[in-house]
Amino acid sequence: MIGFSSPSRRRLLQLGGAAALAGLGPWSAPGAGAAIRAAGQGPQHGLSVFGDLKYGPGFTHFDYANPDAPKGGKFSFSAPYWYFNQNPQTYNTFNSFILKGDAPPRMELCFDTLMVRALDEPDAVYGLVAETVEVSEDGNDYIFNLRPEARFHDGSRLTAEDVAFSILLLKADGHPLLSQPLRALKDAEVLGEHRVALQFDGTQALQLALVIATDYPIFSKRYYTAYDFRQSTLTPPLSSGPYKVGKHAVGRYVEYHKVDNYWGRDLPVMRGHCNFAAIKVEFFRERQVAFEAFKKGNILYREEFTSKNWATEYNFPAIENGEVVRREFPDGRPSGAQGWYFNTRRKKFQDPRVRQALGYAFDFEWSNKNLFYGLYDRIHSYFENSEMKAEGLPAAGELALLEPFRDRLPETVFGEAVSPPVSDGSGSDRSLLRRASELLAEAGFRREGSDLVDPDGKPMEIEFLNNTAAFERITNPLIKNLQRLGIRASLRIVDPAQYQSRLNDFDFDIASQRVSSSVTLSDDVRELWGSRAAGIPGTYNIAGIADPAVDGLIDKVIASQTREEMNTAARALDRVLRAGYYWIPQWYKNVHTVAMWDVYGYPDQTPRYLFPVEELWWIDKEKAAKLGKAG
User: Fold this and answer.
1) Is 217 in the same domain as 283?
2) Alpha-carbon torsion angle 47, 216, 573, 338, nearest 10
3) 251 part of a folded domain
4) At what angle do helices 7-14 and 208-215 cross, to 10 degrees?
5) Whose CB has fewer CB within 10 Å in the chain, the N or C terminal residue?
6) What is the distance between the alpha carbons of residues 218 and 409, in angstroms, rounded to a whole number?
7) Is 453 in the same domain as 538?
8) Of the given ranges (22-31, 357-366, 571-580), which has the lowest mean pLDDT?
9) Is the same domain home to 594 and 584?
10) In total, how many domains does the chain have?
């Protein structure tokens, strides 16, 4: 999974956040989004883009949270390695909301937002700092009525001035993934000490106000008047959330300490949340070192992202005697568009036939059997594991959206949805490699001895870029097949800082990435696949996709007035992206594979659209005492 410089934004994109990205039951009859239906109806305790709210004004807690969860203890885990696809295995700033520097995971625990998401609903949000929200008749103005008891950690009041200041600051100087979606925001106006209005220009997506309300932090205006927001810093910032930065050592760990007098601890949206007295994130340069720390009990929780480890390495004494247990928790989010992405800014990758041909060299069936122990499924779609995935022939609604772009789209878009080839599992399927050679010949490439040369007579060279040796065993068989095609293919592993720098500067051939979208799409998709994002340093459109048809379909997705419309538009978009062969799709699983020392309690219900263990679990003191880990 891709890591984001802004953890708050990371969670946004994972929601499903990545991220997320179908509710617990059937939707009511399709109609205008609830954010629009709420227009002119007075103060609302929650909002939803499509469909009614599950929780009424008098709800006491979310169903997936245990309001009686015991408090205390420490939750410890190692920083997940997917986080470091674009961040080094350390941190050098606590400012996680700008492009400069690398912040540790989970800084968002320190910052309050206007509202919070319900993780058992696709896009419903409920008030945190904002007690209620009013929507204008035209849907362009959102007035948030703030709770007067909201406070920063120094005891100062959190007011409308702070909210307006924060949003405008992020629009001006925030990380591009935070600033770019705010293009449709005209102003944030203070209407009173506890009343602030967000004013949009009419071009915004239905979800944008909800995104701002739930994923944009509220800063202290007084604090950031004294300190330069644009600079990275290891001085923990003044914040207002349930946790604040505690003990830390760069390159080793960071702790977040629970704020005992947190102003919002008894609100319905917070009951059963934030049960640990401290959350400790440990940093390790190598995966194996992190695993050894877990085996020794120095770390008590581990989500396993490596199939080989899950299948072969959990056989140590603590597993055998029951001190460590393994569990699988369902993951209902779209799985994420994970793959090897081509840098189409480079001439050698600009012909889609070349990109298609290279995809034939990856034998997933062999890899899944021999490297992944059969634990994964192949990704076909940019919206895998969701109703937005295109399948079979386009339905009438999809065709209506695709038809205006027919003259600029390949004919494959209008047939069966493009899917990766299925091999014979031999590791070197001759029929697939033969087809790859045919496509390369059609694109003007030819063999000269052992080399494949381009139309200009230059040997075809490809470098896979990665920042971890864990991908070496997976990439090398692909490289071997490419070499059979006459391509000079290689893998370069660089340190995470250099990896990030090269991605920022578009200095790569092929790089691995996973991006997760939400089940209710918003402006985020512009940052992933839109033409404007293709040229922005630090973009997540690393493939450089710049296609007017993609842009037009993104507009249709964002302008959708019902979930049915959005799903239809997303399927059309999925068809076009897949027919562009911008990636070699990789693999996914729809469960969280977790190993843990048996000291935790957790709710019976796992929220469908996120897996925030640190926020919902607790220490079972009796279990912890039995293992000698009560401290």
Assistant:
1) no
2) -120
3) yes
4) 130
5) C
6) 43
7) yes
8) 22-31
9) no
10) 3
Q: Is 622 helix (H, G, I), strand (E, B) or coil?
A: helix
Strands 618-619 and 600-601: antiparallel
Does any domain span residue 232? no
> Which candidate, 568, 571, 573, 588, places its Cα nearest to that of 529?
573
Sign of the torsion formed by the C-alpha atoms of 237, 243, 245 and 246 = positive
Distance CA 330, CA 311 (A): 18
Task: Quickly list DSSP for 381-422.
Answer: -TTTTSTT---SSPPHHHHHHHGGGGGGS-GGGGSSPP----
Q: Are residues 317 and 306 in the same domain?
A: yes
Our measurement of the distance from residue 489's CA atom to the centroid of its chain's CA atoms, rounded to an integer in Å, reads 30
User: CB of 112 within 8 A of CB of 128?
Assistant: yes
Q: By the 8 A CB rule, do 49 and 23 touch? A: no
Q: What would the two tokens of residue 433 be?
A: 């490699």
Phi, psi values for residue 262, rounded to 5°: -55, 125
Task: Dig out the tokens for 24 from the structure.
Answer: 């617990």
> Model-level pTM?
0.78
Find all residues with CB under 8 Å of 346, minimum gap 6, and list them.
Answer: 509
Q: What is the pLDDT of residues 316-351, one digit of tens each?
A: 999 999 999 999 999 988 988 999 999 999 999 999
Average pLDDT for 499-518: 92
Q: Are 175 and 207 contained in the same domain?
A: yes
- Which residue segment(s) compose the domain that 378 sits in? 337-588
